[in-house]
Amino acid sequence: MLENKNQNKTSLAQLGEFGLINHITQNFPVQQKSTLKGIGDDAAVLDFKSKNVVVSTDLLVEGVHFDLSYMPLKHLGYKAVVVNLSDICAMNARPTQITVSIAVSNRFPLEAIEELYEGIRLACNSYKVDLIGGDTTSSTTGLLISVTALGVVKKEEIVYRSGAKENDLLVVTGDIGSAYMGLQVLEREKQVFLVNPNNQPDLEEYSYIIERQLKPEARTDIKELLEKLDVKPTAMIDVSDGISSEILHICKASNTGCNLYEEKLPLDPQFINVCEEFNLDSTTIAINGGEDYELLFTISMNDFEKIKANPHLTVIGHITAENEGTHLITRENTKLPLKARGWNALTE
Amino acid sequence: MLENKNQNKTSLAQLGEFGLINHITQNFPVQQKSTLKGIGDDAAVLDFKSKNVVVSTDLLVEGVHFDLSYMPLKHLGYKAVVVNLSDICAMNARPTQITVSIAVSNRFPLEAIEELYEGIRLACNSYKVDLIGGDTTSSTTGLLISVTALGVVKKEEIVYRSGAKENDLLVVTGDIGSAYMGLQVLEREKQVFLVNPNNQPDLEEYSYIIERQLKPEARTDIKELLEKLDVKPTAMIDVSDGISSEILHICKASNTGCNLYEEKLPLDPQFINVCEEFNLDSTTIAINGGEDYELLFTISMNDFEKIKANPHLTVIGHITAENEGTHLITRENTKLPLKARGWNALTE
């Protein structure tokens, strides 16, 4: 699909590295006051005044993290930015800048790279973050994207994974599991397409879960929401590998246990329907499926009244003493050990 | 050489992503006051007080930027850090933190990754920078390393590429061209080895140029040196692609021309000998060969007395008006147009 067979397309070798950088970065206006100098020198220059700076980085590899047969390049660019901004949000910080490096094989024409950067530009625009640097190089095989995100936060606002206390409530934003089931639908359609390329899929009834997979959003709104509600989380993490894995990270870092309640999990009706269609247990998928990019956090029980009516926030459990262990409490009130079966990039 | 044939070696899949991160980052103590939180949360947290922050990033791809048949993994790790610190130095800033992401195929056993991180650790230790984050993932083919470096600088100390003025002197640190010829020697030895694997190369007489290729250093010392000499460069860049390319970057960003003098180029005797041995023109190599990671900068002519006796600094030309063009003045006093024939990662 991406083979450069069309002789009208522009080859990357023709343009060269500096030409490519100039070309793809021309539509990236600076939007943050803290960006003194973006692309164009040996390094970007930033002025965060006396605020703290948070830094996070992610590497996305074709064939490991994404499949271009159903992931449009524009969506891929958007998602590559979002997953990094999500990490910044998980520190209770505000994302401000990103760098994006790509390694790309010669089978990609310039027009493909433009699509990718159009998605990156849309994300920068939507989240008001500046693209301040990067590197472009060839690769011997597929496409690889490395994004580093920076954000700012006042020191007293930072939320680490390690601050959860016994009796704190476990809260998640939005709903979970849908991104994973979106991927299952896309994988199925790919197999159908391979058998019969004329088969046009009707994905209407899967629109929500597919959007959750192809165009996730970072919860930059939650910091402001919690400030309005006058709630500061005691611990926070974003949901990239699945909430079971993320809860265990919080418990390990905070030296606590937890009880997670199956009946409390916020699930979208479309997600539940598709789990039934695939004969999959919705709870297993909801707690182990990754890539929702929601925020998972703990708050003091005293703050419950402040958040209980909020449609964005769901209390799904509570923190216990470390020696009580980490558990999932089923609808039948059975206590099961909570285990991380989330995604692992090294065992695929 | 790196195939995981030895069953005693530890596979990456056995260890898993979090296990690998924990394992390889355990020997990285925090050395910078500005690092409040390094590895272990969604993002690192940094406090630069009111100083400006500079950020640079580079992507190194096996088969494009390095060849593991003559690049030991420890050296590769060291070099991957150094090339990024060099960019920070080129802003007249002080490097403070790095993130390192790697994509690695399963043919690499854990022990290979340990070697790589041992080089990264040596560089962190030598330059007193903190490893504050990263990502590890599998790749479908070779090894890929993405490094982002951060540094601090007072606003009034920053040196951009764009500040060169007519009559400014063009200065380079150290000597140039050797890293490129080191690579030529290594490439030749590889060919010899492929023909006869029992042939043990004697590289004694090439030790300096090979070290320049395999273990370059970032000129973090130059900022301090120039402060002692009471000289602030008007423009600065580091020598990664070759000085002809770098000089043209400064001239373009500063809207100036330049005259570069062949007879002034600082060349190591070993470099000159090896150029003769390879029947290559030393000037062509010196101005177009990359990876020296020296600093190239311009200073006001009034500062000439302050730097002229310094063994680290060589005046190699001067800045002219833009309409005079960019030239190389040969030993025979011929004026040749200066062209960038430096390395281009996309045309290889």
Automatic annotation (TrEMBL), chains A, B:
Question: Where does this protein hold substrate?
Answer: H65, E291, W343
Q: Which InterPro entries match?
A: PurM-like_C_sf, PurM-like_N, PurM-like_N_sf, ThiL-like
Q: What is its EC number?
A: 2.7.4.16
The UniProt keywords, alphabetically, are:
ATP-binding, Kinase, Magnesium, Metal-binding, Nucleotide-binding, Thiamine biosynthesis, Transferase
Q: Which residues bind Mg(2+) 2?
A: D58, D87
The reply to whether Nucleotide-binding figures as a keyword in the UniProt entry is yes
Per UniProt, residues of the PurM-like N-terminal domain are: 40-153
Cite the binding residues for Mg(2+) 1: T57, D58, D135
Q: Which pathway is it part of?
A: Cofactor biosynthesis; thiamine diphosphate biosynthesis; thiamine diphosphate from thiamine phosphate: step 1/1
- Catalyzed reactions per annotation: thiamine phosphate + ATP = thiamine diphosphate + ADP
Q: Which domain of life is it from?
A: Bacteria
Annotated residues that bind Mg(2+) 4 are located at: D42, S56, D87
Locate the transmembrane regions by residue number: none
Q: Which GO terms describe its biological process?
A: thiamine biosynthetic process; thiamine diphosphate biosynthetic process
Q: Where does this protein have coiled-coil stretches?
A: none
Function, as annotated, reads: Catalyzes the ATP-dependent phosphorylation of thiamine-monophosphate (TMP) to form thiamine-pyrophosphate (TPP), the active form of vitamin B1.
Which family is this protein grouped under?
Belongs to the thiamine-monophosphate kinase family.
Family annotation (PANTHER family): THIAMINE-MONOPHOSPHATE KINASE (PTHR30270:SF0)
Protein name as catalogued:
Thiamine-monophosphate kinase
State the taxonomy lineage.
Bacteria, Pseudomonadati, Bacteroidota, Flavobacteriia, Flavobacteriales
Gene behind this protein: thiL
